[in-house]
Amino acid sequence: MTDFADRVEQVSISGIRKVFEAAGEDAINLGLGQPDFPTPAHARRGAIEAIESGRADAYTSNKGTRQLREAIAAKYDRDYGLEIDPNDVIATAGGSEALHITLQAHVDPGEEVIFPDPGFVSYDALTHIADGTPKPVGLRDDLTLDPATVEAAITDETAAFVVNSPANPTGAVQSEDDMREFARIADEHDVLCISDEVYEHIVFDGEHHSPLKFAETDNVVTISACSKTYSMTGWRLGWVVASNRRIERMLRVHQYGQACASAPAQYAAEAALTGPQEPVQEMVETFEQRRDLVLDGLTDAGLEVPTPEGAFYAMPKVPEGWCEEVLDRGVVVVPGDAFGANGAGYARLSYATGTEELKEALEIIDDATRAVR
Ligand code: PLP
């Protein structure tokens, strides 16, 4: 008997954790991937009322409550004019489980999954866990993903490619034309386009476009979550939208692995989606002000940084030894190579941190940058 399955031996614990562990207790943390805002009160109340009335005690339907799936479908209509059948939605344990069941249901052993490098760490790990072959591809100078790069990487062995806009770790937002191209590529090459849209509402310049809007086949699967939009990372509630035949396959993985998303979280999500959206607007306005602050601070320090148009990250190019110097001076940032080999020479800064702390961190970064030059 072998000890462990190859698919897990090929996966290591995220490099991001290691940075946190190396930091002192008083460090200013620009490493976080979650908004520093409370979950909106009406979302919390949705869960509390469901718990107190006993409605959240039992399993829900495997796909999630009908009301939540209707609220998700209504969201796509409200935001993008897209008509979604609530039966074509599965509520999941965050965007993470949505990604997991999508890959499990579509990737055969050895098949390739193309994804952005630098990119969100789970794409590589979940591809391994699905017994697939990760195929990271580089980005344009502005850190967006070029559809032509994806198209050139497609082979007979390609099962899927991942598009993530707004993106972690870069903050880059893909244009409408790019999204149209991604949809065309999925249609023409008959490969799955997995559109990870967990940051869809955190956009400062222009607007978010989903490739779902442009696809002529059912080859686009859309993933999103309450995690970032409603500052609900701890609730673990996301979803996947796909055609019925795809949803039925993903449901087989979800049903046996998860049974259903946590019922209290489903009621909170329903309340978040159907209630007032002002808390989201206020959060996004704050992130935009901080984005401007960070961009100015990094540029003044002499660093080159593409303007992040969404999410809450900036990804400057940094000189050798910069991350260590910054960390030594008490600011936590994540070295770019934690997000893939092409991330080397970059660092990810999250501005999901209070404005005063950010200002302090930017001063330290300014000094540190001069010191390593
Ligand atoms: N996709 C991206 C790009 C992310 O950055 C994250 C979380 O950081 C996720 C998916 C997973 O989100 P969730 O917390 O909903 O599982």
Tell me what you see in this structure.
It is a single chain. With 373 residues, the chain is α/β, with parallel strands linked by helices. It folds into two domains: 6-38 and 278-372, Aspartate Aminotransferase, domain 1 (Alpha-Beta Complex), CATH 3.90.1150.10; 41-274, 3-Layer(aba) Sandwich (Aspartate Aminotransferase, domain 2). It contains 13 helices and twelve strands. The strands form three sheets. It has a seven-stranded mixed sheet, sandwiched between helices. A three-stranded antiparallel sheet has the order 9-12-11. A two-stranded parallel sheet has the order 1-10. α4 (66-80) packs parallel to α10 (263-274) and α5 (94-106) crosses α9 (244-257). It is globular, with a radius of gyration of 20 Å. Pyridoxal-5'-phosphate is lined by residues 33, 94-96, 120, 164, 168, 196, 198, 225, 227, 233, 238. One of its GO terms (molecular function) is transaminase activity. Homodimer. Its cofactor is pyridoxal 5'-phosphate.
